[in-house]
Design a protein that fits this description.
- α1 crosses α2 and α5 (about 125-135) crosses α6.
- The chain has helices at about 1-15, 45-50, 70-75, 90-100, 125-135, 175-190, and strands at about 20, 35, 55-60, 80, 105, 135-145, 160.
- The chain has about 190 residues and is α/β, with parallel strands linked by helices.
- The chain has a single domain (about 1-190), classed as Glycerol-3-phosphate (1)-acyltransferase (3-Layer(aba) Sandwich), CATH 3.40.1130.10.
- A seven-stranded mixed beta sheet has the order 1-7-6-2-5-3-4, sandwiched between helices.
- The protein is globular and about 45 Å long.
- It is built from six helices and seven strands.
């Protein structure tokens, strides 16, 4: 309930800022989905979440949950912690459980904000989750979120939602498979940018 109220308030705020969503029909209306987006600004999780018709459970760096107000807010917004720099088995299990329940899991494949907008190699997390669960990956590009208030007051944010990348569930996943899928996902995100 609180999620819906906050979602509504933020949606009004983002409407005022001029958010434009393209390709919203590409997000499946039901069933598990992994949303993979570029990450150039702190605005990205908020902008992506309100642009989609379904609640998104974002992975967020664990340090954010240590901050009293922010940590509580993130939990209300369905985010869950991930320890960066290693294979966080707890976060992976949680993400797989959410997908098994038919939820939407949001991940930034680069693993960190990419303020410079240079090509960063994707971490293996998105590909591993997709391959282990057989879940489609929906690529999303956030455009203009790095031009935020006050500098970008009149610059609209654009969220482009690409067509799902369907993935076959694999019993065994190796690094070559993950690397190939990760590269494909990043290519799709780049094409949308």
């Amino acid at each position: 309930m609180l999620y819906r109220i906050l979602h509504f308030i933020v949606k009004i705020f983002m409407y005022i800022l001029g958010i434009k969503v393209e390709g919203s029909h590409n997000l499946p209306s039901e069933g598990p989905v992994i949303v993979a987006a570029n990450h150039v600004s702190n605005w990205d999780p908020i902008v992506v979440a309100i642009s989609l018709r379904r609640p998104v459970h974002f992975m967020a760096k664990s340090e954010l949950f240590d901050k009293p107000f922010l940590g509580s807010l993130l939990k209300v917004l369905y985010a869950f912690p991930v320890k960066r720099g290693s294979a966080d088995r707890t976060a992976i299990r949680h993400a797989l459980a959410l997908l098994e329940q038919g939820e939407v899991v949001g991940i930034f494949p680069e693993g960190e904000r990419n303020k410079a907008g240079v090509d960063l190699e994707a971490q293996s997390g998105v590909a591993m989750l997709a391959l282990k669960s057989g879940t489609p990956v929906v690529p999303v590009a956030c455009i203009g979120t790095n031009r935020t208030i006050p500098f970008g007051w009149f610059s609209p944010f654009i969220v482009r939602i690409g067509e799902p990348i369907y993935v076959e569930k694999k019993r065994r996943v190796n690094s070559a498979m993950m690397k190939e899928l990760s590269a494909g996902i990043m290519t799709k995100i780049k094409e949308l940018s």
